[in-house]
Amino acid sequence: MNRILTLLFLAFSLMFVVNCGSRSVPKGLSDQELYEGALEQMNEDPGGFPWIFNGKDHETILKYLKEVQLRYTYSPYATLAELRTGDVFFEQGDYEQAAVEYEEFIKRHPGHQEASYATYQLAISYYRQILSPDRDPTTTREALKWFNIFIEKYPDSPLVAKAEQRVVKCRQRLAKREIYIGNFYNKRKNYKAAVHRYGLVVADYSDTKQMPEAMYLLGRAYAKQDQYDLARATLNQLVQTYPDEKYAGKASSLLNDIEGKTPPVPEQTPDIIEEPSQG
Q1: Is 13 inside a domain boundary?
Q2: pLDDT (tens digit, 9 = 90+) per residue, 237-266?
Q3: Distance (Å, rounded) from C-alpha 8 to C-alpha 98?
Q4: In a domain, 106, yes or no
Q5: How many of the other CB atoms lie within 10 Å of CB of 232?
Q6: Alpha carbons within 13 A on the beta-carbon side of 84
Q7: What phi, psi does 192 have (nearest 5°)?
Q8: Is residue 240 part of a domain?
Q9: What is the 3-state secondary structure (H, E, C) of 248-267?
């Protein structure tokens, strides 16, 4: 019994190695044949036992695409091979490298008929790398930038609606980040820094769902600094603009708490009167 199991294991291992090993590129193929050979492998069903062989031979596909570019540098298929290289990395989930490939394609071929596709894929590649609000926002900013470029340059594209939806999500993520940092400063009683962060949301992300929360937190931070006039103005605006939001109720409660309060009068140093010199 153990011997049978061992033989089965070896057989499966050999099949796995053969299936996963990349194939060499045949000699003498034209630019079109190389490119279409890569496409055929990209579009084929991987088949086999799904729990073991569920994957494509991306290494071989990349070899075909690279060969087109090396052998036929000035061929239109070489240009398309550059774009498909980005697609291969994207399909693999290597969004960082996919973004590099798509951006290089756009730089080299800005007027190409596939430039709109490359721009959208570049934006999506950054979008797939977006981190939580407490992490580096670079990929969020890059995704937002490229979605906006796509919308501006290709307004008639059927993908514009999806791009606009993702713009909203990117802006919401950036607004959440500013609130996260503002809360960090607030917990440490650095209310001036907190006001700055909450104020950025109010000024730059007023179209996001985070606006009512940011206004409430901003008003509260003003109150903690004894800036009651600014606090009242901010909180009253929140209540009037977003009367049905939960933060409107919190704002009303805080307004009652600070009703009639005025900033403390700073202590004044008495003027020193110099006696005239006796001459």
Answers
A1: no
A2: 999 999 999 999 999 999 999 988 887 766
A3: 39
A4: yes
A5: 19
A6: 26
A7: -65, -45
A8: yes
A9: HHHHHHHHHHCCCCCCCCCC
Of 70, 92, 114, the domain-final residue: 92
Which structural domain range is residue 29 located in? 24-92
How many domains are there within the chain? 3
Which amino acid is it at 15? M
Q: Smallest Cα–Cα separation from 95: which of 63, 68, 118, 127?
A: 127
| CA atoms within 13 Å, Cβ hemisphere of 80 | 14
Distance in angstroms (rounded) separating the CA atoms of residues 54 and 45: 9
Residues 83 and 39 in one domain: yes
Burial of 109 (0-12, 13-18, 19+ CB in 10 A): middle
Please report which residue ranges of 21-157 form alpha helices under DSSP H: 31-43, 50-53, 58-71, 76-92, 95-108, 115-127, 138-153
Please indicate, yes or no, whether residues 188 and 254 belong to a single structural domain of this protein: yes
Give the tens place of pLDDT for each residue, 180-210. 999 999 999 999 999 999 999 999 999 999 9
| Residue 44 placed within a domain | yes
| Per-residue tokens: 188 | 């440490």
- What CATH number does residue 184 fall under? 1.25.40.10
Buried b (16+ CB within 10 A) or exposed e, 244-278: ebebbebbeebbeebeeeeeeeeeeeeeeeeeeee
